[in-house]
């Protein structure tokens, strides 16, 4: 039996999903997330929840989010972040992987495997 090739998270290519819009002001990214669906509608009507939430990213998150172009891997994004922020970005890989997981879990980004 052949061994399964172990996947490396740094080889994934993040892609910004078009379900939300985003804007940049003074170098800071704001993601505009529209709440859709039946339960969101109920919350909007009865509990006065906003239809659109605005999520402001910090300077590190804004920089990385702007570098996501559908071509660069997570490893290449880590190198760009290290070049931009140096020691301020440490622990680089732990922070970046956690940040990318948060973006993925909130459906702001998706992944495609490098070369696909």
Descriptive keywords:
three-stranded antiparallel sheet; two-stranded antiparallel sheet; 5 strands; 38% helix; globular
What does this structure look like?
The protein has four helices and five strands. The chain is an alpha+beta fold and 116 residues long. The strands form two sheets. A three-stranded antiparallel β-sheet has the order 2-3-4, covered by helices on one side. The protein has a two-stranded antiparallel ribbon with strand order 1-5. Helix 2 (59-67) packs across helix 3 and helix 3 (74-85) packs across helix 4. The chain is globular and about 45 Å long. The mean pLDDT is 90.
Short description:
This protein has helices at 38-46, 59-67, 74-85, 92-105, and strands at residues 12-16, 21-25, 28-34, 52-56, 109-113. By secondary structure, it is of the alpha+beta class.
- What share of residues are in beta strands? 15-25%
Distance between the termini: 25 Å
**What is the share of helical residues?**
25-40%
Rg, rounded, reads: 17 Å
Largest sheet: 3 strands, antiparallel
Query: What's the total helix number?
Result: 4
Query: Total number of β-strand segments?
Result: 5
Average the pLDDT over all residues and give the rounded result.
90
Low-confidence stretches: none
Report the principal-axis shape. Answer: globular
Protein structure class: alpha+beta
